[in-house]
Amino acid sequence: MAAPTAEPSANDILVFGNGVSLALAGETLLVKDKTQAKRHQNNVCGVPLGSAPSDFSIPTYNILWAEAAGQALAIDYAEPTSKTQLRPTKLNYPLNELPRDVVDKWVETLLARAYGTAQRRKRAKVLVNPHAGPGGADNIWEHDVKPLFKAARMSLDVIRTSFSREAIDLCEQLDIDAYDVVIPCSGDGLPYEVFNGLGRRPDARKALQQLAVAHIPCGSGNAMSINLNGTHRPNLAALAVIKGVKTPMDLMSITQGSNRMLSFLSQSVGIIAEADLGTEHLRWLGAKRFDVGVAQRIFGKKVYPCDISVKVEIQSKGGVKAHYKRDRTAEDFSQRKEGQISKGSSSTGESTSSEADAGEGLPPLRFGTVNDKIPEDWETGSHDKLGNFYCGNMAWMAPNANFFSAACANDGLMDLVINDGDIAALKYMGLMMSVETNKFFDNSLISYRKIVAYRFTPREQKDGYISIDGERVPFEPFQVEVHQGLATVLSKSGRYATPGPLGWEK
Ligand SMILES: Nc1ncnc2c1ncn2[C@@H]1O[C@H](COP(=O)(O)OP(=O)(O)OP(=O)(O)O)[C@@H](O)[C@H]1O
Q1: Which of 327, 444, 480, 503 has the most C-beta neighbours closer than 10 Å?
Q2: Residue 193: what pLDDT?
Q3: Does 188 qualify as catalytic in the annotation?
Q4: CB 396 within 8 A of CB 224
Q5: Alpha-carbon distance 155 to 66, whole Å?
Q6: Ligand 1 site, CB within 6 A
Q7: Cα 96 to Cα 70: distance, rounded to the nearest angstrom
Q8: Where do Basic and acidic residues bias regions lie (predicted)?
């Protein structure tokens, strides 16, 4: 656990007698208690090392709750039992002669450091998809998540989804004043339904702003959790949600035929969409199914002819890195924390705000629908040899898949990656593998731009795969535009958990 960062002052120490004391030192709680220290050492290290310890420390981030009730002080915290596992643990000390007002003040200081600007005791609507990913969502919820949420004194209203699209109806009808957060325990499919359900309401904008959406990873990709909680491990994600701060996040409107839907993650056509959606017959391969699908198309030199029209905001990779640096450094966390969220214009200056428009439902479409004329200032190109069209709103698409390393949560821009499909196989493999080493962005085989809107029109193919947030939609033209900060999510640090494109600091 982290080393103490500051010397505790006298007010920060509670002395219980018999050599037991609790001290607040910066972002750490120092526990001087031989019995607990020994138990802690055994649990965390497995095997006791050296002489018996007399104290140990707990990062305040791991503190779930504290209260003086009756004649005792109780502290709940998330104790790591391995690098990826936490379990709720309790410390109890009789108050003895300690004055109650001193203890109450100490408890409030501890909670203030534990939660910072994050809301305490969040009221959650939890949606568990028993069929998500490998099918362990019920177990994950019961054993890895619920005990931590309970120890943090969250109020929980839990529903197991029983059919596809149920979460859309649930969120459309939800009493938004009764909850602070909706938490899908699922893959990325259920968050998609949550955003779309909230988006269908007559008070969509209010609902999307007032109610945060947070994610517990139970699927196979779990992009939402990786980007916002910084992990795809359910235990660690649960703690990140408990401590999560409200963060505005861009959403995208998609029009196709006469439909309008919201997308929070990505749209893809070509190799990625096919390798994901077109390999159902290879399910027996497990996670390798996607890699095999990619390799098959690389060696087949598969191309996807199409027309693409784009409203480009930042054309060059250098410009994108500079934008990323501005977003990451100019807007420090304090500006993004709860109650201090600034919305209004993208960091490129153009207003993309959803709030600026009057009305309660979803913001009006600034560029019309897929059935309207394409605006004249959009760049239009014919792509005979397209291999991959990939538009993202978050950085990670899965663990080890940081495709959109310059994605920012609330910049009012989408990140667009395009590459041809007739690349030499070895180079293509290298390109795909560079995603894992964060060198994808700089690879000269792809273009990487920041955009505001686009239209995609497939050509010369009877059928194919279009993926919206990982779900298949009809193989027909579609148009997309971004709404800055339309949604509210909970994130660990007020921004995406991404290292950014290599060298952005320079
Ligand atoms: N009880 C249910 N039975 C069948 N389908 C369900 C049920 N509950 C939800 N669904 C549907 O399951 C779909 C996939 O959900 P989810 O994203 O949670 O899992 P996943 O697709 O397995 O995960 P990943 O996207 O990570 O692969 C959603 O579109 C949702 O509508």
Answers
A1: 480
A2: 98
A3: yes
A4: no
A5: 16
A6: 129-133, 161-165, 186-190, 193, 219-222, 470
A7: 11
A8: 327-340
pLDDT at 9 over 60: yes
The interface pTM score, or ipTM, of the predicted complex is: 0.95
> Of 375, 391, 351, nearest to 254 (Cα)?
391
Report pLDDT digits (tens) over 83-131.
Answer: 899 999 999 999 988 899 999 999 999 999 999 999 999 999 999 999 9
Cα 220 to ligand 1 centre (Å):
10
Q: What size, in residues, is the chain?
A: 506
Instruction: Please name every residue paired with 419 in a beta bridge, in sequence order, or none if there are none.
Output: 388
β-pairing, 123-128 vs 155-160, is: parallel
Q: Give 150-204 pLDDT, tens digit per residue.
A: 999 999 999 999 999 999 999 999 999 999 999 999 999 999 999 999 999 999 9
Buried b (16+ CB within 10 A) or exposed e, 33-49: beebbeebbeeeeeeee
How far apart are the C-alpha atoms of 337 and 333, rounded to whole Å?
6
Work out whether strand 259-263 and strand 266-270 pair parallel, antiparallel, or are unpaired. unpaired
Closest residue to atom 7 of ligand 1, CA basis: 163
Residue 289 is classified by DSSP as H
CA distances 445 to 226, 384, 441, Å, are 26, 16, 10
**Two tokens, residue 249:** 């996040």
Single-letter amino acid code for the residue at 69:
A
Q: What tokens were used for 107?
A: 């408890």
Among the listed residues 12, 144, 188, 411, the single catalytic one is: 188
Amino acid, res. 381 = G
Pairing state between β 181-186 and 212-213 = parallel
